[in-house]
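Q: Convert this sequence to structure tokens.
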Amino acid sequence: MENKIKSLIIDDDPFIMELLQDKLMQHLPEIEIIATANSGTEGLKKIAEFQPDLVFLDVEMLDMTGFEMLSQLKTIQFQTIFITSYNHYAIKAIRFNALDYLLKPIDLGELKKAVKRYKVKSEAGYDTINTALHNLQTTDMSEHKLVLRTQEGEVKLILKDIIRIVGERNYSYIYLTNSKRKLVTKTLADMEDLLSDKGFFRCHKSFLVNRLHITSLVNSVTLKMSDQIQTPISRRKKESFKIWFEALV
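A:
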């Protein structure tokens, strides 16, 4: 018999809390709900008291956000599955940091997948939360760490170390300042979605570039990057790239 997963639910919506408890008890008996809390303040007390393995955490509570609650902990020795609404601004931050989340109202299939992902993670899951808190507390965006899942496991890349990303079907190659490259199982559209507000621009259907590494414009359809590699600008993106690039100067 496998060990029970000691779990804590922190959510200020009684309906969501009851719904989640019901689904866990009926369909995921390996999850033991050891306590619940209806605010971030109460959640901090329950974490200290019960030392959970897994916390289901509401992104937005009346007294504080889930991230603000986590930032008050000296150490984090549990994994977190966030609970959020579809249009919440925090979803992008959650996805950027490769954190797990469930959308309200909670779907049973997605809940089972999230618990399955929890089981295959190790203590590295704690580090993912710490990386997310680092990013949220660091004002210099170039120092943010992008967390990506690869076939070899999770990788963390500092944004300033990424020169360009090249899309190839359902994969992307990330070219780094140390002359290495990483292959990740995300499309270039996925990478654009994560990075478009962090100084990256999709200048071509196959290329996403980091503004920090653009050294010159060779001509209206060609960029020179810091590794001396020339990168094309598609004619369709020429005008929007010009507006984006001039706004950075």
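The first helix runs from residue 14 to 27.
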